[in-house]
Amino acid sequence: MPKPRLTIVIPIRNRQVLGERALRSAAAEAVPQSEIIIVDDASEPPFQIPADLRTNESIKLVRHPDNRGASSARNTGVASAGADWIAFLDSDDYWLPATLAPRLEIAEAGFAIDRNPLVVHAAGFILESSITKRLETRIPRESADPLDFASGCWFAPGSTLLVRREAFDSVGPYDVGLRRLEDLDWFLRLALGGGALKVWEKPAAVIGFESHFAEVLLTRAVAHLSRKYLTEQGRDHLSGKLARRFRAYMDIERAACCSNQKRWFGVLFYLGRSFFEVPRTTLHLEAFWRFEAPPIDMEPAGGVGVRVERDSPASS
């Protein structure tokens, strides 16, 4: 068997129907010599590859015997990857047709010139809120500034990321101690190590946005990250503007959690503290993306997606 050109990693936990949609959208992409690794993080019942795809030898299923979290699932996918390039796709998202090949070609061409494995690639995405049902097409901006990466993940890395496998040798794996904010942690480490983000300025993925999550997971993640980045003992201790940015973003996450639970005093408290750390005129720490009208047809190959009318406006 020749070495794969690309490995697609899909972590999944208890999402049979949505996982099938994600898998079909990945399998439909015309990228020669690609493989798909599904990491089932102890789903109950276990995730099943659809019958019509079971003869596809490029699809592999790896199961965790116990629930270990998204960080561990992605690490398993990376460790199992046969290719030098890795693409990630979250199980509740899907790719728009014919978007993976051009992104990979651009990433390969860039690497052939600079040979820098710490340059990672993202793309535009369409955010679909499970609450409001509104669609926002966001084109994230490029950056190599650690200040930006201490301010959140504005580029949907779980479903638009293309990265060299060697990047994990330099940055390290995803932190398995985190069940929330694991992307923030990994990309902050990437930026502190000299990494950079490049962006394909077209939408490539539809992202299912779910605002509700277990508060205990956020509380533990904030404490874990604070020990890592805000104490003298932390290997990547932040100071000055970087520390203020980081604290301001942690408080945005806390405020969002309070909002989900309708704890309005907590919302005001954490937002006030965030604005004190980084004075600004918007909720977000900076304008990390521009908005565009969503595509007319957002149907994934082989699955049910979202269709929008021609006159649908972009949300802002």
Describe this structure in words.
The protein is an alpha/beta fold. It has 2 domains: 6-209, Spore Coat Polysaccharide Biosynthesis Protein SpsA, Chain A; 215-277, no CATH class. It is 36% helix and 21% strand. It has 10 helices and 12 strands. The strands form 3 sheets. Strands 3-2-1-4-8 form a 5-stranded mixed beta sheet, with helices on both faces. A hairpin with a 5-residue loop joins strand 6 and strand 7 (135-140). The longest helix has 21 residues, at 240-260. The protein starts with 5 loop residues before the first strand and ends in a 9-residue tail after the last strand. Residues 306-316 have low confidence and may be disordered.
Secondary structure layout plus pairing:
Blueprint: E1 6-12, H1 16-27, E2 34-40, E3 59-63, H2 70-80, E4 85-88, E5 94-95, H3 100-114, E6 119-129, E7 135-140, H4 146-149, H5 157-160, E8 162-164, H6 166-171, H7 182-192, E9 196-209, H8 215-229, H9 240-260, H10 264-277, E10 289-292, E11 297-298, E12 306-307
Parallel strand pairs: 1-2, 1-4, 2-3, 6-9
Antiparallel strand pairs: 4-8, 5-9, 6-7, 7-10, 11-12
Number of helices: 10
Low-confidence stretches are 306-316
CATH superfamily of the largest domain: Spore Coat Polysaccharide Biosynthesis Protein SpsA, Chain A
Query: How far apart lie the N and C ends?
Result: 48 Å
Q: Supply Rg.
A: 19 Å
Query: What is the domain tally?
Result: 2
Largest sheet, described in full?
5 strands, mixed
CATH architecture assignment name of the largest domain: Alpha-Beta Complex
Class by SSE composition:
alpha/beta
Shape: globular
CATH level 3 topology of the largest domain: Spore Coat Polysaccharide Biosynthesis Protein SpsA, Chain A
